[in-house]
Amino acid sequence: MAKWTYGFGDGAAEGGAHMRDLLGGKGANLAEMSVLGLPVPPGFTITSEVCNHFYANGETYPADLRAEVDGALGQVEKTAGRRFGDPGLPLLVAVRSGARASMPGMMDTVLNLGLNEATVEGLAALTRNDRFAYDSYRRFIQMYSNVVLGVDHSAFEELIDHRKEDKGVSRDTDLDGNDWRRLVGSFKRRVQEETGKPFPEDPLEQLWGAVGAVFNSWMNQRAITYRRLNDIPESWGTAVTVQAMVFGNLGETSATGVAFTRNPSTGVAEVYGEFLVNAQGEDVVAGIRTPQSLTKAGKAANRSRMPAMEEAMPEVYGQLVDIQHRLEAHYRDMQDIEFTVEAGRLWMLQTRGGKRTAAAAMRIAVDLVREGVIDEAEAIRRIEPSSLDQLLHPTLDPTAPRTVLARGLPASPGAVSGRVAFNAEEAETLAHQDVSVILVRVETSPEDIHGMHAARGILTTRGGMTSHAAVVARGMGRACVVGAGDLRIDYGKQQFTARDRLVKAGDIITIDGATGEIMLGEVATIEPAVSADFELLMVWADRFRRLAVRANAETPGDALTARRFGAEGIGLCRTEHMFFDAERIVAVREMILADGEPGRRAALAKLLDMQRGDFVALFAIMAGLPVTIRLLDPPLHEFLPHGEAEQAEVARVTGRTLEEVRHRTRALGESNPMLGHRGCRLGVSYPEIYEMQARAIFEAMVAARSTADAAVTVEIMVPLVATRIELTLMKAVIDRVAGEVAGEAGARLDYSVGTMIELPRAALRAGDIAAEAEFFSFGTNDLTQTTFGISRDDAGSFLETYRQRGIIEKDPFVNLDIEGVGELILIAVERGRRTRPTLKLGICGEHGGDPDSIHFCHKAGLDYVSCSPYRVPIARLAAAQAALAEADSPEVASRE
Amino acid sequence: MAKWTYGFGDGAAEGGAHMRDLLGGKGANLAEMSVLGLPVPPGFTITSEVCNHFYANGETYPADLRAEVDGALGQVEKTAGRRFGDPGLPLLVAVRSGARASMPGMMDTVLNLGLNEATVEGLAALTRNDRFAYDSYRRFIQMYSNVVLGVDHSAFEELIDHRKEDKGVSRDTDLDGNDWRRLVGSFKRRVQEETGKPFPEDPLEQLWGAVGAVFNSWMNQRAITYRRLNDIPESWGTAVTVQAMVFGNLGETSATGVAFTRNPSTGVAEVYGEFLVNAQGEDVVAGIRTPQSLTKAGKAANRSRMPAMEEAMPEVYGQLVDIQHRLEAHYRDMQDIEFTVEAGRLWMLQTRGGKRTAAAAMRIAVDLVREGVIDEAEAIRRIEPSSLDQLLHPTLDPTAPRTVLARGLPASPGAVSGRVAFNAEEAETLAHQDVSVILVRVETSPEDIHGMHAARGILTTRGGMTSHAAVVARGMGRACVVGAGDLRIDYGKQQFTARDRLVKAGDIITIDGATGEIMLGEVATIEPAVSADFELLMVWADRFRRLAVRANAETPGDALTARRFGAEGIGLCRTEHMFFDAERIVAVREMILADGEPGRRAALAKLLDMQRGDFVALFAIMAGLPVTIRLLDPPLHEFLPHGEAEQAEVARVTGRTLEEVRHRTRALGESNPMLGHRGCRLGVSYPEIYEMQARAIFEAMVAARSTADAAVTVEIMVPLVATRIELTLMKAVIDRVAGEVAGEAGARLDYSVGTMIELPRAALRAGDIAAEAEFFSFGTNDLTQTTFGISRDDAGSFLETYRQRGIIEKDPFVNLDIEGVGELILIAVERGRRTRPTLKLGICGEHGGDPDSIHFCHKAGLDYVSCSPYRVPIARLAAAQAALAEADSPEVASRE
Which end of chain B is more exposed for a tag (fewer CB within 10 A), N or C? Predict the structure, then answer.
């Protein structure tokens, strides 16, 4: 027969911390603390299996539950020396929900349960404190009515306010025992009016009501949504913990508080927390009174005049510090503790792993290693990789005042202030004058890249987390807020409105790419500093990880950032980004507008010098680390402007007629550019383009070797391959040019040629393609677009609805779709390696910087991930975690 | 030791027809005819293995080949009673190439080989005909110099012309023996000048020169291209046949001719062919003299005065007819025969299966079954399914004169004349006046569908074989020419130019969708009639096939056509096509422009009646056959116009401001509509749309059952599903509406709900999706687009280059890409059936009407294919062939 309840208290327990699944986090830790001999008020936990039974059987309890609860309650009565419902020596209990994972949205707590007309008098007599007893009773009625009976808070607030008005006072503390007794009567009448039933007098009825409310709250809408968003299975269920009440509001020797075993903001090993004298737990939460610091140091830091616990209750404080040390040593992690002091006696009500900032997490993990509490692997496991983002970008000073205009999606972290510019040219002009600029656009396109580079922040009113603006901004490490739909931009008037506020070009705004907030004027920020702890943790991570980490970078600036953050090479150098510079775009456009191959070659000859220079600079910075260069990818029309004025300018500069420019722009236009004439299709149509790029690469290799000692390791990547023969043809062009340059320079050129796997067909035909390719790089952005049939640029119109309706849980452009795209990757890995066991495998889509996706890449057996420079540390950490997880439970990614 | 040569002649042979791979078609059939005892001049064939040896060994021959050839030549000399190079009794030979499959682009034939200064005199003496001997000699020099030595034809023509001028005559026949002797001298000098070497005198040198030329021609560019386009492996190689010459030009009792055992145009069982008296084979080809008919009937039909062979050479004619019967009985198929009569003696030079028109192929196959020569299965195997297209559409009268303006791609067969209209409205207006219209557009969009329907033919200047215009036209059975890039349309001036020709709106043009020709004015056409043979063959096909055949149809007209051609249901009813009607588009646009769900519902209510009517009509025609209805698929912006004037009109009709219409059009605009907010994504965003469509379907089912006795079998198809849950949600909407309608009508509704598999992810997740779907229909158009990452609308700019460069052999939108898209289909079939063994599987993309693709569908185990109504017979035949092929060599489609 199943056991439904587990008791604890008095230095013993039927359960422990290892029974979290059955008892919930709260119940398990209360049992654990009991076993450790800490002072825990006695109680028992009704298991999560009861919750499952409840829902599997038409919301009824197991037949034998009632008897077990009676028995467990009897044990609590015995330990506490009081009896439930006994007017003489009444036992009061707290009822709390407790799931395996912390879950907002569920019923939380009912305190003081067991009070009724009779026991309240007993409590008053026992404590010799009328006010305390009736205050406790009215609190119980309020909480119970609210969370169990569904009566709104305000019903009771109103009655309290009336009472205070009648009495001519303003604070709750001005009400005495008599006032509360009268209010208890009013409360009960109100409950009768609202629910049609009297407030329950029977303590057992109260108890079962509260237990039922906990179980019912497991299936309320908020809890369901929360579970879905956090991958929590419904089958986990919730437990219910029933525990004898202790009172922090019995007078000046009573108190209640919370404590962290280390500072959760900084991670410093110090006692950190606050308490309230003569108060119950909810008072700390309600924030009506200002809590006092636990320590004198804390008191000084807060410039508080109220005594610290260290001063006010030195003995109890000593016990608390001792218990903190014992708990941290036991749990081997920073703890978040709740305690109550009842008439000078310390009671522990909860302990759990404490939430902390990224910086604190880092510091604590490193300190715990130094203290010999945990090992390096454990330190690595403890840091959430994406939290590092906070440490790598400036953040708003949390104390600075601000006026929030609107909110968009937090697309690229960092908080910056700057003058509003509505086009790329203006942004560039201002930036040249050393003005900090926020580029504000409905959306951005490759034409805007120079402006995005010049700007410190980018704000768009359309697009999602993976729109052009978002992707480019993350790549450049620019702060970015996208999809701020409440803004209305009027390019003509050079202004935007946010509801009733008007912002003109040149006005200063601040955007926070970590929250999505758009603020008026300048808001003070704080600069990040990469700490020694951070560096140390990275060194440890590198020891464990198997995946190499590279960066996506084109400019010397990006390459330097990448190296600073520990990138082991460039995994994706997008050569088209090098073409948008004002000087070069003219030659690019001449090439596009040329009537035939000779004209194209003449224009390409002009680009050759610049392109060669790009690579010389990159090779010098990368100093022998591998550099993967992707040949031209976007369709040519992306390099032509669409506005009449810009077209006229292009005509003038390139010596063509406006009509020619217009006609060519129209002719190159595409219905679905994403699936159009781009990638290696350009190389097949115009081999002279790839020829020029190959020559620039090889000549740069020769030049770099003559100026630096370092070897240059070049991987040339052909994009958008769908068939083996495309790669065969393009490789032939590259190899021929290599032969020519080698001949001219009298040098040997070492390089490899590979391809992006970014089309489903390429993944399926990987076995064939690997016969030509020396490496694969998974272009998961495009692979996600084609596998799902979803355009990143257009997904904004329905992806949010999809999330709301539960069709997708996470944006597949951020979080790799393991089931679909992931299987194609596994197919390609398997088939590619079968053909060529030495095939080098990497990923260079946005997913290369996403921890979950990195985990998958590790399991899939890739050699490296490549991500934006600012995500390199995240990737290093995530890769180490993936390796550790594999060591913990070895499993290989496998497909259906 | 390998045997390199195979002799034949004199009623015996070392080879036979079964040795086609080794001896080539020509050599194998000559051997076969010898064995049959037919009069075949003796000869031998050098095998295709020699060709392979030649290329595998640096273009050298096997060491023992020369000795074998000497031996084989000796045998020919013995049989012929003449000797090679013997001035007294010279043996002359013909050298011919002969691959396993007929291959234009290779060296064809060298006749009269063995002639030199000495043997020509022997030939003259032997035939007592100086002119004949020197005419033969000069012909030999011309042919040999051209095909072996690479000297241009014109070099010799020029010399002949000079000679005729000197002599003051105009015809070759006016030149005598002496003239030809002098010309032989001039020819040789010219060869010496051009090649720097004398023309070879040694017959053996001549022979090896010719043999080498045959082998070399296997690898010339034209042959390589032809092989690639026709899937002929290089490894097949070519054979060389060396055969004793017989002469049709020895005087009035000599002749040469070609004969078919049945009429290749009509298939009628009659002797068909022509001959020339006193001529060599090449004279027939050269077309200088008009050949005479073989039969008196043929002579009468041609209104010829020249005697038929039946009259001129009755005895030889009798032998020829007898041989024809024997050959047809032996080969069990219509034969194409070449023969020569030398001084009254008949010699057979070649026999092979004769090329024939689709109509003839049909007639012959059916007749051969009636005659008991072949069985029904064989008759089915003999018809090329795509040739049926010729029989189902009007064709141009081949005798009618025409002025060709330009040429485009033959997108949809049929030849039609009509007045030029440049927009859909004008086309509709004219059509209502019973004017035949050709709609001429740069390209078409869904907005043009009503105009395309109204037009008899469609002509576009952009787009490829699978552009919107092409696909829709094929679906509607409209003639269509696309991508006619030489035309310049000026919509403003309502005219187009084709080089120097101007065509204005209202002018008549003719287009031929089978050839791509665009002609000025009206060109007479001939209407097709589906013959009794055709019907019979279809009945036989239906007996063998396992795949069911359905049609893609929306309109009653299309549905009727589909049934007439034997469709067993509708596999794809695209509901959006029903929305473009002038009356409905207003309500559709109201729905799109509505501010919220209530407004959308009001507009949808208007559409409900019309949509219900559509289905009632379809159900009545289909009379119980299954009808698969696809819910709305295209993105909403396809229903909004982009021109200012049209937008103003929409604003007027829907009671909105122009600005509202513009804004909504812009807001709905997409960068990549193909990957945008369409398919079930619309259903998720606006469930009320699918709700209306489901209600229309179910109410139509109720209505149809009350008016007709037939059951209605409805399959509701949800498009563009990528995840199971999308289908779950849409199925819930459909099932709910079904419940409502069933309740209102007091009826039970039988229907099934399934999905398109048209995204790679859907194929991969088929196991999951099949838990919800009762059927899958492979939407191979979109699946090809996403798997390849190629937009059909934009592929025109590079697919042709891809074909030229050998990257793709066939347009993947016409011919299913078995390696890529095919594997996804196999994955989906396997996983879908694993979850749901009763899952119904079909295909409804363009590939459903393509024979190769149908073959794959059969092997993949699908239940049906669905194609445009006009391709239904093709699909029935192809499906039967697939079943027969499987019976011949059972193999299941399998994936890597």
Answer: N
- Tokens representing residue A431 in the block: 């930036």
Q: How far is B793 from chain A (nearest CA, A)?
A: 6
Model-wide pTM > 0.90: no
Res B287 pLDDT > 70 = no
Interchain contact B765–A (C-beta under 8 A): yes
How many Å apart are CA A759 and CA B383, to the nearest integer? Answer: 38
Whether A529 has a pLDDT exceeding 70, the answer reads no
Chain B residues inside the 8 Å CB shell of A677 = 794, 797-798
Using CA coordinates, name the residue in chain A closest to B791: A675
Burial B319-335 (b: 16+ CB within 10 A, else e): bbbebbeebbebbebbb
Q: How far apart are the C-alpha atoms of A797 and A790, rounded to whole Å?
A: 11
Q: Are B805 and A729 inside 8 Å of each other by CB?
A: yes
**Percentages (nearest 5) of helix, strand, coil residues in chain A:** 50, 20, 30
Contacts B633 to A, Cβ<8 Å: none
* ipTM score of complex: 0.80
Active site residue B844: yes
Q: Is the pLDDT of residue B527 over 70?
A: no
CA distance A759 to chain B (A): 6
| Interface contact flag, A673 B672, Cβ < 8 Å | yes
Backbone angles phi, psi at B6, to 5 degrees: -130, 120
Contact A841, A776 (CB under 8 A): yes
**pLDDT tens, position by position, B222-237:** 788 778 767 788 889 9
Label residue A285 by pLDDT band (50, 70, 90).
Answer: low
Least confident of A187-191, A535-539, A702-706, B291-295: A702-706
Predicted pLDDT of residue A500: 86
Closest chain A residue to the Cα of B767, Cα to Cα: A896
Q: Residue A117 corresponds to which amino acid?
A: E
B788 → closest Cβ in A685, A759, A794: A759
How far is Cα B416 from Cα B439, in angstroms, rounded to an integer? 12
Please name the residues in contact with A465: beta carbons below 8 A apart, sequence gap of 6 or more.
A409, A411, A482, A811, A813, A814
Under 8 Å CB pairs connecting chains A and B tally to 168
Which chain A residues are Cβ-neighbours of B798 within 8 angstroms? 677, 681, 684-685
Predicted pLDDT at A356: 80
Measured CA distances, B496 to A668, A738, B490, B723 (Å): 21, 49, 6, 47
**Which of the residues of A are catalytic?**
468, 844
Interface of B with A in 579-598 (CB under 8 A): none
**Within the 710-749 window of chain B, which residues sit less than 8 Å (CB to CB) from chain A?**
720, 722-723, 725-726, 729
Res B796: pLDDT: 80
CA distances for B742 relative to B624, B699, B711, B751, angstroms: 19, 9, 16, 12
Query: Do the Cβ atoms of B711 and B747 come closer than 8 Å?
Result: no
Instruction: Test B760 with A798 for CB contact under 8 angstroms.
Output: no
Q: Does the beta-carbon distance from A765 to B819 stay under 8 Å?
A: yes
- A604-643, pLDDT tens digit by residue? 999 999 999 999 999 999 999 999 999 999 999 999 887 8
- pLDDT exceeds 60 at position B729: yes
SS (H, E, C) B239-282: EEEEEECCCCCCCCCCEEEEEECCCCCCCCCCCEEEEEECCCHH
**Touching A: B residues 771-790, CB under 8 Å:** 782, 785-790
Cα–Cα distance measured from residue B379 to residue A69, given in angstroms and rounded to the nearest whole number: 85
Residue A290's pLDDT band, with cuts at 50, 70 and 90, is confident
Q: How many CB atoms lie within 10 A of CB A104?
A: 8
Tokens of A244: 């004898």
**What integer pLDDT is reported at residue B107 of this predicted model?**
74
